[in-house]
User: Fold this.
Amino acid sequence: MTDKNTDNKKWWKSAVIYQIYPRSFADSNGDGIGDLQGIISKLDYLENLGIDAIWLSPVCKSPQDDNGYDISDYQDIDPMFGSISDVEMLIQEAEKHHIRIIMDLVLNHSSDEHFWFQEAKKSKENPYHDYYVWRDGVEGELPNKMRAAFGGPAWEWVPEIQQYYFHQFSVKQPDLNWENPKLRQEIYDMINWWTSKGVGGFRLDVIDQIAKEPDKEITNNGPRLHEFLRELSKETFQKADLVTVGEAWGATPELAKLYSNPDNSELFMVFQFEHICLDQIAGKEKWDLAPLPFLKLKEVFSRWQKELYNQGWNSLFWNNHDLPRIVSRWGNDKEYRVESAKMLAMLLHGMQGTPYIYQGEELGMTNVQYTIEEYQDIETQNLYRERIEKGYAKEEIMRSIYAKSRDNARTPMQWSDGEQAGFTTGKPWMRINPNYKEINAQAQVEDKNSIFHCYKTLVEFRKKYPVFVDGSFEMLLEKDENIFAYTRDNADAQLLVVCNFYGKTIAFPNEIQKDVMELLLCNYGDISNPSKLRPYEARMYFLKK
Ligand code: NOJ
Assistant:
């Protein structure tokens, strides 16, 4: 078995992956919803950016209760996105642009409209019944107090069979029962079918929740999780040169080492969220806002970089379809939007791991502030209803929604300053962010000083300089309240990244030897005064070895 974690030649180790949220990316047929042909029409743009693979959020058949994360047929495409032949075409066309397609596997739950569930709820004797997680009960007396992630109890009553089913997300997303070997085999067959179509890999939705044990109130990291993952990998991923990334909200570095273990038995990397959860009140919900503890952010990144070095593999991300836009979150989306978006990109892309760029991040797209009626996301709508019932003030709820709603990431991609930002010729499924005249792809592709070009340069660096891929990590100035600085080191080179994380001009730290450095990149273009760091100024240097 190859030692995947110390073999830095693996394609996905120097890869940069771009996430597409299909309904918001590009609409080819004017129905207001992005689709597969829309993605095909933008492959030149993505090749220009330099990315190696696309992670495609779900496009399988779905009633869209949770925008496709509720799948009713894993081997068919939802007509709103196109057809199986469109996916096949996407895989082939993307290959011509040197881009692989990574599919999103939602294996913790299906839609309640999936054939399996339709059968499962017919009777306890039905062969599909045990594909889901059921508990006997008395109507009105829930098996326990567990709550679903989108609000309400995690149990739903089915009167026909006098049982509750378990759902960690919406009522339309019943949890699959991984204890059942027949279900597991169906899943492996489905994955192998997708592999045979030539996909480049898989992103595994909430994969650390599949081994749940609701009687013990266990959701993440259940006792059988790693056993299930090893079997899954052996029966599917290990048969081809695929990349796999698991979404694991409950991951610690110790667990991540197991998932991305050098023996190649589970996954290649996980999305962990320790850095992402810092700006919320500890122990509360993400909606309970707290300022970002900057020193803690540095400590978290540093720990992950060091712990996984040669023992696992990090994924690097600020954004995805569930998170607010990073420039609005920890940057400054007004006066210093361009500078802070580039600083955040440089800070992240200098680290070890596989970087992910979420659509529009490369343009510095921002959060929105819509009326509650305009929000489409089930989580946002449920939160609003729940908190109104609990007596929260409307303004306070809206403040949380502006800061954290998933729809911040889901507004349509801003392609141009034309009608509907060039996203659709029809009426978009969600309102376009009104700042599209200023922030759009067309303008940025033409402007060599744009955020887009900064990302493109960072992608190039990863291909050109092995130290970006294999260098060891050292955090500098750990206690500095403004500066995020670190080095990366290998036998041939030493990279230094220095970022002013805030909007005030500060002194360049004396501890760092300016006279032995060669500038690689500065987000302001050039350095006006080597001794000062302007607001959000970021620099990448090579230190003379
Ligand atoms: C995580 C996905 O990223 C999110 O969008 C979805 O709602 C949940 N998993 C449930 O599938």
Residues 124 and 246 are 32 Å apart (CA to CA). The chain is about 25% helix and 15% strand.
